[in-house]
Amino acid sequence: MRLPLIPPTELTAEQRPLYEAFEKMIQAEEYQGFEVRDPDGAFVGPWGVMLHFPDLAVPLGQFIDVAQKLPGLSERARQVVILTLGGRFNVAYELYAHTPLALRAGLRPDQIAALSAGSRPADLGEDELLAADVASALARGGAVPGPLYDAAVAKLGRQGFAAVAFITVHYLALGTLLNAYDVPAGRAVTQTD
User: Fold this and answer.
1) What is the dihedral of CA 170, 101, 119, 111, to 10 degrees?
2) In sequence order, what are the beta bridge partners of 43?
3) Torsion-angle region of residue 142: left (phi > 0), alpha (psi -120 to 50) or beta?
4) Residues 6 or more apart from 9 whose CB is under 8 A from it?
5) Is there a contact between 166 and 138 (Cβ–Cβ < 8 Å)?
6) Cα gap 129→127, rounded to integer Å
7) Could you tell me which of 75, 83, 170, 91 has the C-alpha nearest to residue 132?
8) Could you tell me the mean pLDDT of each successive run of 10 residues in the chain, 193 residues long?
9) Is residue 104 a contact partner of residue 78, using CB atoms and an 8 Å limit?
10) Dist. CA 189–CA 187, nearest whole Å
């Protein structure tokens, strides 16, 4: 990583509240199964980057919190979107952290591998395929093609389409930060971690 990890003993007054907020957040089930802190207690991944920029991390965190709670998309489809973007931009930490989450959501290892490599597994559900296609179209730039938009809204509904769009924004932002600072995948986590 191009930024130093910040151990808890070296936090500034501006960083301390953010660190404490991250501490509370990572207690949730969704943050289990991958490394979020190193053995010294320093946050890794996006948290390790955001601690360096507390003034920007707070509003970004608020956006992320709202985007993660948007209705209209299954957890499987959500993970498909995230892995589609991680694979498209080769975001090491994003792919690492979302592999166990995608497994918990019911994706098979071969589907996860294909999405992580930038492919689109044909055996996903229709909602998952549409979510992947919308995320891919947004990542390419330009407007989502009309027929894809119509098909996605017909299948996912307006809320589901909006969830795909905002999850895409969320993970494009995090993926850009992770790649800008060359954040590596975390270490393997065992049940005792």
Assistant:
1) -160
2) 37
3) left
4) none
5) no
6) 6
7) 83
8) 96 97 93 95 97 97 94 97 98 98 97 97 96 98 97 98 98 97 92 53
9) no
10) 6
Q: Please, are residues 65 and 150 in contact by the beta-carbon 8 Å criterion?
A: no
Residue with tokens 């891919």: 136
For residue 61, the cross-strand partners are none
Helix H or strand E segment including 136: helix 126-140
Please name which of 67, 40, 36, 32 lies closest in space to residue 49, comparing C-alpha atoms. 36
How many angstroms separate the CA atoms of 110 and 97, rounded? 16
Q: Which amino acid is at 139?
A: A
Whether the Cβ atoms of residue 138 and residue 165 lie closer than 8 Å to each other: yes
What are the tokens at 13?
């007054």
Q: How far apart are CA 3 and CA 155, in angstroms?
A: 42
Largest CA distance in the chain: 54
0.85 surpassed by pTM: yes
**Contacting residues for 12 by C-beta, under 8 A, at least 6 apart:** none
